[in-house]
Amino acid sequence: xxxxxxxxxxxxxxxxxxxxxxxxxxxxxxxxxxxxxxxxxxxxxxxxxxxxxxxxxxxxxxxxxxxxxxxxxxxxxxxxxxxxxxxxxxxxxxxxxxxxxxxxxxxxxxxxxxxxxxxxxxxxxxxxxxxxxxxxxxxxxxxxxxxxxxxxxxxxxxxxxxxxxxxxxxxxxxxxxxxxxxxxxxxxxxxxxxxxxxxxxxxxxxxxxxxxxxxxxxxxxxxxxxxxxxxxxxxxxxxxxxxxxxxxxxxxxxxxxxxxxxxxxxxxxxxxxxxxxxxxxxxxxxxxxxxxxxxxxxxxxxxxxxxxxxxxxxxxxxxxxxxxxxxxxxx
Length: 331
Description:
alpha/beta, Rossmann fold, 2 domains, four-stranded parallel sheet, 12 helices, globular
């Protein structure tokens, strides 16, 4: 059909894929970190405290004291390409675009910070994407991560006159392709060490214990990932949870407590973070730097941090296979 001469331009229909990770400040300085934390910690799924009680605490002591400390931590891992999480997510997006070809338009966004989900979706729609697969980059489902992406998409859809059809990448914590990619990555990391670790420790991001009792499957899915990986590798894997915050009881055992105990026991350790799709502050600073310091201060001598899947070949092949499966019927 020929369009009338005065018809506005219409892009050819395309399929979009949007990779979404947690987020990062724009720079490793207190003002940037303050803006990021204000957005992140104001999400009602992230901090499940009534806002009338939480906001005075957040706007008071937390945003007054925490940005300077966090900025120092970010500065230790910042690169020429900016935040490691941002740089790696961009690389993942580019690699996935190459793997999927021209039939699919791949973009990336951050749940908190830039590029924002709404901005990325608008760009995909402008490019003609009438069908979009949203891919939260979290192998294990958690209301404070995966669900917030769905929330943000729902909020943005309310602003659109012509809404695209959407699909969401489900959690892949027990997918054979994910376990195989983890196995290849961890074994490659271990082979590069000059010692054989006595303990292999999988550190997942922590959550308040109450989330488990409220029905969040995150704790169970983390343990299942570790169990399947242990079976695939044929060796024990211990599980711990990092990044505790506040006074509430969190999932245990805590990573820092485990590292101190292993250091005191004189054990050699290799630690990795299978719940993170890309290296970031929580892996590069909290585990690789601060975790090592805690381990050595307790008397430990041999410690190694093994990188996340990032944009390496095995991880990208896994992600591409999952994305192709979820695009079935669209491509």
